[in-house]
Each structure stands twice: as structure tokens, then as C-alpha cells.
Amino acid sequence: MYENFLLDTLPQQQANIASYTHDGQKVWLKKAAKRNSRLAYLPLTLLAKWLRIEALKPVPNLGGEQSIAQEAARIKALSAAGVVVPTILAEAPEALLLADAGHNGQPSQTLLDKLIAAQSVEEIDHYLALGTQALNDVHARQCYLSEAFARNILVRQEEVVFIDFETDPGEYHELTDCMVRDWHCFIFSLYGKLSKRDMHRERLTPALLGGLYQATPEVRERFLDTLPRLTRLARFPFQRFGSDGKKIAITLHALSVLDHQLRTK
Questions:
Q1: pTM, whole model, 2 decimals?
Q2: Phi, psi at 54, each rounded to 5°
């Protein structure tokens, strides 16, 4: 049933991912995308080498059928480890058909959307804690994500679902660095999107400190080891380069505060 729907729908789909209703069930068809140019990874590769931070070395998206096979394998491995991920309904070399992450007719929302919609300190703290606890739970299972951005973390009721596994950082990094990479992706995505919201920005640091205190000592120490080298970038006047530059400057300042707080506890 699902296999036929995938094979019939795939030739007609233009976008890389699209949602459909099949027999009353919302599903997502994700098809193979083009491979990113290796040149796109060069700036981050050089930056990671200059800063001597292994966890920042980019993980290439292979694109095409390789990325589909990668995502299928990663979803199955994470699910087997107890991490909540989308259910694969059908697969082909060129595409995956995934069940929607909603529950009992209620749609899921990204953690980022939940945070943006939050109107109180209590709501913000709740969703940030939900995110950091879920990330630590993944790591406690000796697993790691692919792109641990807030947009790739879905919230359904009080459960977190992780999505987007076209890459496998474990092919390029050791386990601890994969986990440290998760924290950096998570932190940069939050400050990058919430930097203009004063109430949110004020709650981020204590929430992240709480999450990092709950991380394993090895992950916390490895993460802490990256901070002095990374915050060296704060010497550059990013704030002069538009809104994106200001976001980088705010994030680097926040990392400096995290560095100080983690070392003085």
C-alpha cells in the first residue's frame, strides 16, 4: 500500500519534501536531493582547522541515493536505540515515505516554533528544558544526531521527535565529538533565531547551563575545551556586518558567558 503510493507519487513531486494525505493519514515523501558542492564546506573546514576544533569540521551531505540510504539507516539505528524518530512507511533508492510526527490528530511543531510562540518565562523555560533533556537522553543512549538544530526537533504534546538524518557525523568524528557537535548546532540555532527576543535570550544561558551540567562529564569537558578557542572569534567586529553578523556576535558572547559559568561552578 505505502510502497505503491511512494512509487506513484514520486515522479510527480517537484520539491525535495512534501506532505500528502494517504488513506486519511498525513505522510511525508522525501526524495533524493542534489549533492552539495564540496566548496561549500571549505570555509568551515578551514575555520575548524585554524581553531583546532575537531567537532566543527563539516559533515558533507552526499546527496542523491546515498543520502536517502543514509537517512533510512540512521532512522532505523536511532529507533532501535530508543530515540524517537519518524516512522519509515516505505522506501525506495530515490525516496522515503515517512509518517507524520503528529499525535491523535494534533500536529507537531518545531521546538523553534514553540519557543517563538511562547509568551512567558515559564513557557520558554519549559521548552528549553524539554530540548536539552531530550538531547542528553540521545547521548545517554550512546547516540548522536545529524543536524541538531532547533528546526529539526519536533514537539508533540510533551514528547520530542528528531528529524533530518541525511548525514552521519560518526563517519567523520569520534563519538564524543559528535555529541559536542550536537550541542554547538543546538546552541547556534537557538541564539541565531532568538537573538532579537530579549526575554528568550535571557533565559537561554541558564537553560543551556542546566542542560550542560546534566551532560556526561566527558561531553561537558570536551565542549568546554572548545569554548576558549571559539570565542577568540569575538575579536572580529561581526556586529558591523548586518543582522547575521549581530547574531554571530551575540552567540559568541553567550558562549563566553557559558565558558565562565561552567568553569566557576
A1: 0.92
A2: -60, -40
